[in-house]
Amino acid sequence: MKKDLEGLEKALGTSFKEQGLLETALTHRSYINEHRGYALDHNERLEFLGDAVLELVVTEYLFHQYPNPEGELTAWRAALVRGEMLAKVSRELGVEKYLMMSRGESKDTGRAREYLLANACEAIIGAIYLDKGYEDAKDFILGRIVTHIGEVFDKKLFVDPKSHFQEKAQEMVSITPTYREHESVGPDHNRVFVVGVYLGDELVATGEGPSKQEAQRNAAKAALEKKGWDK
Amino acid sequence: MKKDLEGLEKALGTSFKEQGLLETALTHRSYINEHRGYALDHNERLEFLGDAVLELVVTEYLFHQYPNPEGELTAWRAALVRGEMLAKVSRELGVEKYLMMSRGESKDTGRAREYLLANACEAIIGAIYLDKGYEDAKDFILGRIVTHIGEVFDKKLFVDPKSHFQEKAQEMVSITPTYREHESVGPDHNRVFVVGVYLGDELVATGEGPSKQEAQRNAAKAALEKKGWDK
Q1: If exposure means fewest CB atoms within 10 Å of the residue's CB, which of A52, A107, A140, B59 is most exposed?
Q2: What is the ipTM of this complex?
Q3: How far apart (Å, rounded) are the C-alpha atoms in residues B115 and B110?
């Protein structure tokens, strides 16, 4: 099935010389498994390439724009290129409806979809880079990703949410948050941990994730939102 | 103190328009602390930039050269750009005698020196990139770093040494290696763990590192060499 990609190209601000590159960038490995005769590859190699292009463009931008020490630039960069941000950019571009994935994947709209959207964003960058070169990929990254730098600063996305919540909790209510594991579900290779974050006895929020650490980070993030401390 | 950098430029195969960039790339933060009036910055920001340039050049090379899946390319890339490899490249270029560091640092020729040499290598790449652009940085990386790809394959540097040693031990002597902590020395913030790797009761080698994990990796690496299983 060849989707009409004109709408997406418009959103991306580019038209591909080699359309197959864009199609490949949108193809999840699960689609290949379901369509054995499919002529194209899945997007993982393009993602590998796009990730490195993204990294250099963002690095160069921060290096020239800010005189700050390397440690700060590294934290800001991590916030700009992390999965959540890239999934969001993909949504803004309307990538979701062009994704080629298995029927199983297409039903899973939670965390798995976010992951898939983030990877597609990197793969699209890889495709632009191959088709048009560094300058075009750079224009795309500056115009669509680096533009979120204000949000990174405003919402302190570069701060680890656990440190951020602890700081705020101490400032606002003089309490150090604690974390308790509520449950862990699923088989070993696909376990999901559910963790609650507390201020004293008050359960502020819960979070889940594939590790305790990530579940705690997600709980802290949810708690920051719930308390309105993420502004 | 302005060192004569001509010899180094020759080894690097480039001559800098802006010599200060190369000097900065060679300057460790400890040097600045000891020389308050020093006009230049230390090399950490250049290292931040150079690391991303290195990543893209190596990524692009592997992407075009090998049709392998992303997971394999990622492992090969990691082996090419890891600290040990970059420190080695710095030594090959004779970077060591040009490093500007505090008297304290200059006495420490062990692990700290390796780290410093690896960082200088990335900073030099950043300096070339700023002074001459992507193509020159790419030439340097292809000619000096990517050339070690044969060694990566021959010595299986892309395999975690613990898995590698375990595989070999099972193949050669049908024993699963075990690790025992021998001692840990130094204050909390600077602890060094010493670990031994055993085949049954035989102590094959020891390794040290700032974490148990890294000490085990180093022990496994030493054991592979000792047994001649690293060929």
Answers
A1: A107
A2: 0.83
A3: 9
